[in-house]
TrEMBL record:
Organism for this UniProt entry: Alligator mississippiensis
Name of this chain's protein: non-specific serine/threonine protein kinase
PANTHER family xref list: PROTEIN KINASE RELATED, SERINE_THREONINE-PROTEIN KINASE 36
UniProt-recorded Gene Ontology molecular function terms: ATP binding; protein serine/threonine kinase activity
Gene Ontology cellular component annotations, sorted alphabetically: cytoplasm
Length: 826
């Protein structure tokens, strides 16, 4: 037996040395597969533990220690992080982890290990296993941590007892006990600390943290011992990690820390850097302390303990530190303190310089910021608070500053749009290229919304300084806004909000805030050339297509008003926008659009009707889409008739406008016009001026396409004539054009036109109306009517005829009146 053990140890040492090189993951994996590792190692360890005779041998602990050491080397190997190394590698890794957990309590309970070497190696192995699990895929890490909490919670209790120093043996020196407590502390921190990113093991690790938090809350002595160790250089960082993870899931523990007498002093020492540690560890401990204080402030809705020292030291770290994550953590805490009324005295230039340096330097996180926030969230939060209070830099200076430009670059890089370093505008990804998943460690979903709030503030105060970026198709600003509306990004964003902790309103808020930024060109005074370039750039960036997809999949129906309005503005000024809208409108989109059209929310319905009117106006090629949306050639009339009778005036007006634009085309309403005519004629007398204006526009175009409906339109003559005196100039103009179309298309209506004194009334409008557009429309209509012999022969006696003839001819020469009317201008 001794001979076998003596031969085994050199072999284990060679294998361990090979694994520690981590030189070639594929070759090391194949070596382990050929040697059947770690199954053989764990099997041997189990056999040794099961054999009472073997455990009586003095070398048994040494062999077990070597077996655990090589197993630890296997756990830390790179091939456990990648499924591509070999088929089944992750499955073997998961099974080995399960077997190791089953052995670990027995390894820790061995009484014959006087120097505790086996305990130390076993706990170190568990620590490194947890670190490997945090970097592994969710299908492996999730079940591991779930099993740790459900089946091996006694192991967690053992680790907590060991970390607090509660377990001591007579033969162990003080130094050995402290070293062992440090190792247990590191293991417990690895088991419950929050991993970076949003991997699948987060929820499972929450369960571990909940168990630890419950144990700390129920055993004040253990909690007190753990708090005392915060000032020990060798374990303070891991102690902070444990408390930070536990406070995320336990408000009762937060209250205990708030009342703990030793907490303010310990945290103040850590913030000041008074505890002797290596420089990198000191920075990490300060960052963890700031995060813990921010978390306590958020959870308790009150400033943290030791407020004066906290505010002073956080301000010093914010302005003096060169570590990005530390500056961000300090900024996040300072903003929390400000919101609770704490005075934080930071000069504007000093704060701006700190923000610029932090956003320029490369960042590396020690811990994920509180409650799922990202690294840049704290910086953005602080900057938004600074600008909102008009402290420090003025908004004008900020909008034109280097910091504004760097902020956009950093956010774009975090969203997966650009590389981390500022780059040329032309290097941004072009539409259609695949884009990576956002780095939620850098900017969280909530931080994305925070950035949009910051952008809205700056755009609102200095729109003309910001809008130039929207007129450049290759600008990073436009590319970032496009990214925020893209289907892949919104899908990633939606996935982050799944589960009980998700915010269902976050994704709609991101979409609507992005739409607000894109609406600025239409909300402020912009010259036509610049506006045209902005619209063209938006179409090139496929903004119209993304808007429709965002409405279909990510917005509740009442919230679609703004993006539909933006779509309408784009389609009005660029036919490509209408084309993108039609191209994207597949079956899910058609279902969504139909629900908007026939829904109970008037504003989205009106905006969609206005958009569809622009689509109809843009090209006859869009008619099949419109007919399909409205229910086909047979159902279009029924759907439009229902909309024309809507109780809301703006929906009735939008419906008339859509019908009028459809009637610009010869086949705009195949088989549906006869059923709509009566409803349109009724709306000529609508009490709402906008409805009358849109209705006469539709009737005028119906008259242009009349065909066999002339007699039906003749019944509307008195109503149309009355509208020549409408208070709205556009309505009077449309009425004149409609009368011209009636006379142009049907000689049989001449008598009706004469009976209603249409020529005389049009002549009166042409001479006396206060609006040039109305006078011009009346002149065009008169010229069309004069082509009908019956009307031409009809003269109304007028003593001032020569003077009026001169007036009419003068208007015709000045305006270049065309020979005949056409479809009414809307």
């Amino acid at each position: 037996m001794l001979e076998g053990a003596s031969k085994l140890r050199p072999t284990l040492r060679v294998i361990g040395n090979l694994l520690s090189t981590r030189c070639d993951a594929a070759r090391l994996y194949h070596l382990c597969r050929e040697l059947e590792l770690p199954r053989v190692l764990l099997g041997l360890a189990g056999q040794v533990l099961d054999s009472a005779g073997t455990m009586q041998q003095p070398w048994s602990i040494t062999v077990l220690t070597d077996l655990v050491a090589v197993t630890t080397g296997y756990f830390t190997s790179d091939f456990n992080q990648e499924r591509s190394i070999a088929r089944g590698s992750l499955e073997i890794f998961a099974e080995a982890a399960r077997l190791f957990l089953a052995l670990l309590p027995r390894l820790l309970a061995q009484p014959m290990d006087g120097e505790r070497r086996l305990q130390q190696q076993s706990v170190v192995g568990f620590t490194l296993l947890c670190e490997s699990m945090d970097g592994s895929c969710s299908s492996v890490a999730g079940p591991f941590y779930a099993g740790l909490c459900a089946e091996h919670h006694l192991l967690l209790d053992t680790l907590l007892q060991g970390a607090s120093g509660s377990v001591k043996e007579a033969k162990t020196t003080q130094e050995q006990s402290e070293r062992l407590a440090d190792i247990f502390m590191a293991a417990l921190a690895s088991a419950c600390s929050i991993p970076l990113g949003r991997g699948g093991c987060r929820e499972a690790k929450k369960q571990v943290a909940q168990h630890v938090a419950q144990m700390l809350a129920e055993t004040p002595q253990v909690l007190g011992q753990l708090l005392e160790k915060l000032v020990r250089p060798t374990c303070s960082l891991n102690g902070l990690k444990i408390l930070y993870a536990a406070c995320h899931v336990s408000q009762s523990l937060c209250h205990l820390l708030e009342m703990g007498p030793q907490v303010p002093g310990a945290l103040a020492q850590l913030l000041k850097g008074e505890i002797p540690m290596p420089e990198p560890v000191r920075g990490q401990a300060q960052e963890a302390t700031l995060h813990l204080l921010s978390l306590l402030t958020l959870q308790l809705q009150a400033p943290p303990p030791g407020l004066d020292v906290v505010a002073l030291e956080a301000g010093e770290l914010f302005t003096r530190s060169a570590i990005v994550s530390l500056v961000s953590a300090a900024g996040f805490l300072l903003t929390q303190l400000r919101q609770h009324g704490v005075a934080v005295d930071l000069g504007g230039e000093e704060a701006t310089a700190a923000l610029t340096n932090a956003l320029t330097a490369r960042a590396q996180l020690c811990l994920p910021p509180p409650l799922g926030t990202g690294l840049y969230d704290g910086l953005l939060f602080f900057l938004l608070e600074l600008l909102a209070q008009e402290e420090g830099v003025g908004t004008w200076g900020f909008a034109g500053s280097e910091l504004w430009d760097i902020t956009w670059h950093r956010v774009a890089a975090a969203l997966g749009l650009a590389r981390g370093e500022p780059e040329m505008e032309s290097e941004t990804p072009r539409p259609g290229q695949p884009t990576p998943e956002p780095d939620w460690n850098l900017i969280s979903p909530q931080g994305t919304l925070l950035f949009l709030n910051l952008a809205l503030l700056v755009f609102t105060r200095e729109p003309h300084l910001c809008l130039g970026q929207l007129a450049q198709p290759s600008s990073l600003t436009l590319a970032t806004l496009r990214k925020l509306l893209s289907p892949d990004f919104l899908l990633h964003l939606t996935q982050t909000q799944a589960g009980e902790d998700g915010d269902p309103g976050l994704v709609p808020a991101v979409v609507l805030h992005t739409c607000q930024l894109l609406c600025f060109p239409f909300a402020v005074e912009v010259d036509e050339e610049t506006l045209a370039r902005m619209v063209e750039a938006a179409s090139e960036a496929e903004i119209p297509a993304h808007l429709l997809q965002a409405c279909c999949h990510h917005l509740p129906l009442p919230a679609t008003e703004l993006p539909l309005s933006l779509l309408c503005h784009l389609a009005l000024r660029d036919e490509r926008a209408a084309g993108q809208f039609v191209a994207v409108a597949s079956e899910p989109a058609v279902t969504f659009l139909s629900s908007v059209l026939l829904g109970t929310h008037a504003q989205p319905t009106y905006q969609l009707l206005a958009l569809l009117a622009q689509v109809a106006r843009a090209s006859s090629a869009h008619l099949p889409f419109l007919h399909g949306l409205l229910g086909g050639s047979d159902g279009a009339g029924q759907a439009l008739s229902q909309l024309l009778g809507h109780p809301e005036p703006l929906v009735r007006a939008g419906s008339c406008s859509l019908v009028g634009n459809l009637l610009r085309h010869r086949l705009g309403l195949p088989g549906g016009l006869a059923g709509l005519l009566e409803r349109l004629l009724e709306l000529l007398g609508d009490p709402d001026g906008a409805v009358r204006r849109a209705a006469i526009f539709a009737v005028g175009n119906a008259a242009y396409q009349a065909g066999g409906l002339a007699q039906g339109l003749a019944q509307a003559m008195p109503c149309v004539v009355r509208l020549l005196g409408d208070p709205q100039a556009r309505t009077r103009s449309n009425a004149a054009s409609a009368l011209g179309n009636l006379g142009r298309n049907s000689a049989e209506l001449a008598d009706v036109l004469i009976q209603n004194e249409v020529p005389r009334l049009l002549l009166h409008c042409a001479c006396h109306d206060s609006q040039p557009a109305v006078r011009e429309a009346a002149l065009i209509a008169l010229r069309a009517l004069s082509r009908q012999p019956g009307i031409r022969q009809s003269r109304c006696p007028d003593p001032h005829r020569p003077a009026r003839r001169g007036q009419v001819q003068g208007h015709g020469r000045a305006k270049g009146i065309p020979a005949a009317p056409g479809c009414c201008p809307q």
